[in-house]
Structure formats: C-alpha cells, structure tokens
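Troubleshooting entry. Yesterday's outputs looked truncated, so today I'm pasting the complete records for two proteins to confirm everything comes through intact. If either block looks cut off, that's the bug. Protein one:
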Amino acid sequence: MPGTTKRGTTRRTFVTGAALLSVLPLASARATPDAMAAAIKEVVGDNAIREGRMTLDLPPLIENGNAVPLTVSVESPMSEADHIKAIHVFNEKNPQPRVFDARLGPGNGKAAIGTRIKLGDSQKIVAIAETSKGEFFSASADVIVTLAACLEDLT
C-alpha cells in the first residue's frame, strides 16, 4: 500500500506524531536533583558511596555550556585484582541525569577520562567510580553556567 511503512504506519501518522513531539515544552524534559539521585541509585544500588580517591575537574564558572571540559581521575593500582571498572557521571538539570558511563579495565593503566559535556544550566555534577571489588567512590562539583546549552530558548 503506498505511503504505508512495513509496520502499517502511514507517513501522515508519523508526521503528525513528530509535530506533536516538537511542540512539547522543553522544561518537562529536564532532570531534577531527585532524578539524579534515582539514576545514581540505579548504578550503585544499596551500596555505600564513599568520598575520596577521585578528582573531578571542571571550571567552576562556565561562560558557554555548549562544550564544558571535564576530567575525572581515580587513584587506583589498575591491577587485575584491584582496578576501576567504570566511571559514571551524573548531572541534576540537563534533559537526562546520566551524562555518560566509561568502562575501564586493568589494561587502561590509569583510571582517568577527559571529555567535553553540554550543561543546560548551573548545577551540580557528580562522578562515581566503581571498583572491581564492588566499592563506589564519588566526587562532585558545582558549576555556574552563564549561557546554557541543551535547553536554550530558540524563539
């Protein structure tokens, strides 16, 4: 049948649905501190999270939230018996509370990652390191963003 996809959806239905999605308010897609706490709980479960062993480095004042440099490093011998398995980064005001997960192993040699992220507003960033022994460590930083990314009003 012309105009129908394999699943039976017409182009008109698809376009109508896409148009409805495009007019939804952006504010409803924002994460909250509670959403960030829930995302962290998904990763760590009921395990204790300890401070220390980690450094979360990002500028405290950001002029433009479109490309914020972020570096996370964790003190670890990175041996087969004791290494960092993952580094998880969370935020409390972007559209999604989970920024990224980086998987590591002893072959990395060093537990450190660096990247750039977008920030939609001034907020708290939390990094959590997961060890091969099932321990969790965290570090956090508050960031002030003067020109937000992600949620800019385009009108």
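Protein two, checking that the full record survives here as well:
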Amino acid sequence: MRHYTKIDKIYNQESNADIKERIQLVRRITQDKQHIEDVANELHRCRAWAYKWYKRYNENGLEGLQDQPRTGRPPDVPKETMLKIRQELAYSNTGWDFRQVMDLIYKKTGVRYHEVHIYRLLHKWGFKSKVPKKRFVNTASTNEKKSFKKE
C-alpha cells in the first residue's frame, strides 16, 4: 500500500488541470526519482516547460506552481470614468446600440474603441441586447403569436 505524502494530498485536492500536471511533474522527479526530461516526454511537454516549473518549485515550493497574475495592457480610460459611463447606460430608460455607446465613450474620454470592444465592454458590464436578434422572430408557435396580438 502506498504512503500518501503532502504532494499527493495537494494533488488530490487541486481542481485546476494545469496545476495538477505541474504537481505531477514535481512528484515524479522528487519522489519517483525519474529524470526530468523523461517526465517531460511522458507528459507530452517540452524540456523547457519541465525545467521552468521544476525551477519555480525549487524556488517557491508548491506555491511556485500556481499561475502568476498577468497585468496586460493598461486601459486607455480610467476605471472611474468607465464606471460613470456604465452607470449612465444603466439608468437610461431608452435602448441604445453599440454606435451610441461608442459615441458616448468618445465624447466623455476622447478614446475611440472598436465595435467589437464595445460589445466586449457591454458584455463585461452585464448588459444584454434590448432588441431581439432576427433569429428569434419566428421561434414562437402560431397559437402563441395569435394569443400575443392585441384584439
């Protein structure tokens, strides 16, 4: 019967598949005494990947196997300004389309965003289309359409 170690317990509790793979790499190298390049081949990974994660484990322990935060490109518009624009859209009683939102952002900030990014922002803010898409027009049955019509 196999004796469970700390690494085995953490492996069993982990839900992220990428981190589980890194823990498996470390366990095979440290406990099973396999060569790092052999483990990389078994996991279908390159040597550089294996050396990178093993080095991070040696420097920071099991915490080093976690993903580091990524900063990305900083936004062109401050968060406070975008929050005000979002609130203005939320309190609006009328519907709007992406062009109106794009113009509103441009008027308030001087930054012009692409159409696709406007849709991303609206989705991130939790807004949905107020006008149904054309594909939903004929989904109701004939009886449902008749019952919905005004008499």
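Both blocks look complete. Sanity check on protein two: Residues 6-65 form one domain.
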